[in-house]
User: What shape does this take?
Amino acid sequence: MRRTLLSALAVVMTGALLAGCSGSTATGSAEGATDELGIAVIGPLTTYDPILSDSGVAPWMLQPVYDQLIRYTVDGGFEPNLATSWERPSDLEFVMTLREGVTFSDGTPFNAEAVKENLDRVATAAGPDASLFSKVASVTVVDDSTVSLALSSPDPSLELTLSKNLGMMASPAAIDGGTLATAPVGTGPYTLDAADSLTGDHWTFVRNPDYWGGADAFPYDELRFKKYADANAVLNAVRAGEVQIAYGAADTADAAKSAGLNVITAETNTVGIVLSDRDGTMLPALGDVRVRQALNFAIDREAILNTVALGYGTVTDQWFGPQTAGYDEALEGTYTYDPDRARKLLAEAGYPNGFEMAITIPPIHTALIQAIQGYFAQVGVTVTINDSQANFFPDVQKGVTPAYTLQNAQLDLFSLAPNILFPGGLQNPFKSESTEISDLYAQIATATPEDAAEKWQKINGILTEEAWFVPIYNGYTIAYADPRVNVEIWPGMSTPWIYSFAPTS
Assistant: This one.
């Protein structure tokens, strides 16, 4: 029978946890092994194919099965994984030396041919992260343990790209058999227990006895992911000891603290409005920088943070977050709450009576847009809402409205910024462009880290002065954990990663 401590302890420990005690958790046995770890999720995993999964949501449910070529560390660095080393012989080459003696869980050898088959699929499969690999022109097998990537233009972000979904290696046999979406096969520390999993409800991963990293590399014998309907259901599950780790939410975080849970937070995204029609193609008013600046002066960021995000975040006047190379503390305070100044700028731009503006939002931004509506109305700007539901990104890409709200990931600017700043970007539907920004970006590709940071800050200054966005606050990723389980949040990631999961004692 599958070992479990959770069901036996859940009822006993619920009362203690609610009283402020530490609650149930998987614990070590006399031999030092541990049983299972329960993890709550709200968004279900839709495919086990890492290339077809969104790296912003799915990694922690794919990491049990798949190793990445490069490991992204919690301090923002990189370390060897399936690739033991890598180098850039030139700006247009990226060469990796691969770990030898590794096999996929189906017995297929891991080698350079397997890496090439995985990476060649990125372009043909056209998954949500394919653009991150767009500068890779070809993948060549040098020998059994060496692969070389030829680039069409320099890409300083390749290490990060290969440390997320696109760097997860799947068995060529599973790829060729067309079964990867439902039956994952990797080289990772766990394998899927299909008999104890139900698509859309729960997923169980059991220890891979042949894992190349050894049996002690990960402390838990099983990882059990369980889907819950909403944030309250997630909180109740952690309280009851059904799970020990959960993706949290601002509106339940205080209750989690009161229940004795550890609440882990990290700034991972910027929340605000993208003024995508900044040339005034659809809405002429937005073509005037004074109007865009007025919208920035019109809102009380602190009040919105406290009412919408319940204080879980920090207000900001810039689109690049503190964890990016482009963040410039000197830009904070550029747009203080000043509705009188907003009205004056609107009048100078020829809109003394304001104007109407439609804004597209995803479902999670209902409260945010209602707060924005109120502040904009005070300076004469009437906001109509396009609540796009599941069509949010298609509506954004088609330019259905001249602006949209966004929870913008803040991590690697080189790979993410073009999508929203340059004419070819899917989140820049009106194809606006700044030649100064484009020139700086081109220089960043081959710059030293210090020079790149300086140039990113120059770009940030331009964006802030020209008011391409209305940034409001840097939002937190929130996680809950039983006090006897360690959890960390990796920089820029929206979910905790399994690599830190361990008993705290």
About this structure: The domain at 268-475 is CATH 3.10.105.10 (Dipeptide-binding Protein; domain 3). Confidence is low (pLDDT under 50) at residues 1-25, 27-33. The CA atoms of residues 142 and 148 lie 7 Å apart.
